[in-house]
Structures are given as C-alpha cells and as structure tokens.
UniProtKB/TrEMBL annotation:
Keyword Transcription regulation: no
GO cellular component: checkpoint clamp complex
Protein family membership: Belongs to the rad1 family.
Source organism: Rhinopithecus bieti
Protein name, per record: Cell cycle checkpoint protein RAD1
InterPro entries from the UniProt entry: DNA_clamp_sf, Rad1_Rec1_Rad17
Length: 231
C-alpha cells in the first residue's frame, strides 16, 4: 500500500471531501486557476481563460472555513500543502444548453491535433464550417500568404459521429482556442457542438493510465460575422 494511503486513510472521516489520483500529471497539465465544485458524483473543475513524474495525489477538504489539503507522494516522500480557500467569484455562464445544439460531431483527437499542426496558427481567427452538405466539416485560417482549409468528410475514418442539421460558418479568435490544446494533447476524442447562437462547445475525453475517463469542456464566443462571400 502506498505510503500516502497508509498515512491518511484513517483520517478520512474528518473531511467532507476526499479525492485521490494515482497520477496527478493530467490534472496538473490542465489546471492553473480553477473553481471546483464537489458532489457525491465527482468533481467539476471550471477554468476561465507542469511536468511531473509518476506522482500520487490526494486532495482533502474538511469544510467551509478550512484550508484545502493537498498530499503529493513521489518515491516515498510525501509533500503536504495547505491552501486557504476563498469565496468563488461569479463564473461566466455561457448558458450552453443541449436542447439548443444545432450541429454536433465527434472526432478522434488526432484529427484535430493534425489540423492545428497544418493550418496557419498565426492567423487571428479559426473559421469552423459545419454543414449537412459538402464540405461537411472544414477548418480554415487566413494569413498574408492566403487562406488554408482542411476538410473532413463525414465518412472519414477520424469521424466517429456526424449530426449536422444546417450550415453554420463561424470565426473564433485563435488566441482564445489555444488554451484548449493542452487538453487536446491528452485526449482521445473530441466532441464539437454549436448552438443556435453560434457558440461552440469543445468537449475533450481523456482516458487516464488506469482506464478512468474524465472530460474537459471548453467554450468561447464567436469572433465576428463571416462575410457572405466567404460563407
């Protein structure tokens, strides 16, 4: 039994929250500043706007007014961190509702990762086209040397699900999308949805080394209206 588990397994009753990970790498890669909501079903971490070896992680919280306790174990050495908690600031609510979704695709993550490698990421915007007709799913960037397009047929081997009801062409600032690439690198699948306001939801499915699955969801606003000649 790991030293970390032995040390505090008998102290769990004094905490209102106890959460453990065998490897904290995925969590540390995604998080910088976050709001955490803990329920009996799991922990929802909301982030607006690291590099470890195999490190065990345990998080405990005794209740309102108490510090958040972090226990990290690596090579038999346990580090204990106490973090004072604060009242959370109001989180921006994008009010993204599943009943308002117009288009949805599920893509193997390697396909989206390939797009970010091949397209001109110096472009200010990324244009996303989703349509029941050709080009079906298209990513476009625009630079001084011209425009670049990457198309995904709906029957592509990378496409796991394709549900498009109408054509939507929207642009989003690449500077807002780039933070989501941290989750993309760790993920195996990505769900891309757009609602009736043209807001996108990017949901990354991440499978840990022990087979557990977690999700990172990313939202942003459309940047600008697409010129009719380009749509």
């Amino acid at each position: 039994m790991p030293l970390l588990t032995q040390q505090i397994q008998d102290e769990d009753d004094q905490y209102s929250l106890v959460a453990s990970l065998d490897n904290v790498r995925n969590l540390s890669t995604i998080l910088k500043h976050a709001t955490c909501l803990a329920t009996k079903n799991g922990i929802k971490v909301t982030v607006e706007n690291a590099k470890w070896t195999l490190t065990a992680f345990r998080m405990c919280y005794q209740g309102y007014g108490y510090p958040l306790m972090l226990f990290l174990e690596e090579g038999g050495v346990v580090t204990v961190c106490k973090i004072n908690t604060q009242e959370p600031e109001e989180t921006l609510d994008f009010d993204f509702c599943s009943t308002s979704v117009i288009n949805k695709i599920i893509l193997q993550s390697e396909g989206l990762h390939e797009a970010f490698s091949e397209l001109d990421m110096k472009s200010e915007v990324l244009q996303i086209t989703m349509s029941p007709d050709k080009p079906y799913f298209r990513l476009s960037t625009f630079g001084n040397a011209g425009s670049s397009h990457l198309d995904y047929p709906k029957d592509s081997d990378l496409m796991e699900a394709f549900h498009c009801n109408q054509t939507q062409v929207n642009r989003y600032k690449i500077s807002l999308l780039k933070p989501s690439t941290k989750a993309l690198v760790l993920s195996c699948k990505v769900s891309i949805r757009t609602d009736n306001r043209d807001f996108p939801s990017l949901q990354y499915m991440i499978r840990n080394e022990d087979g557990q699955i977690c999700f990172v969801e990313y939202y942003c606003c459309p940047d600008e209206e697409v010129p009719e000649s380009e749509s």
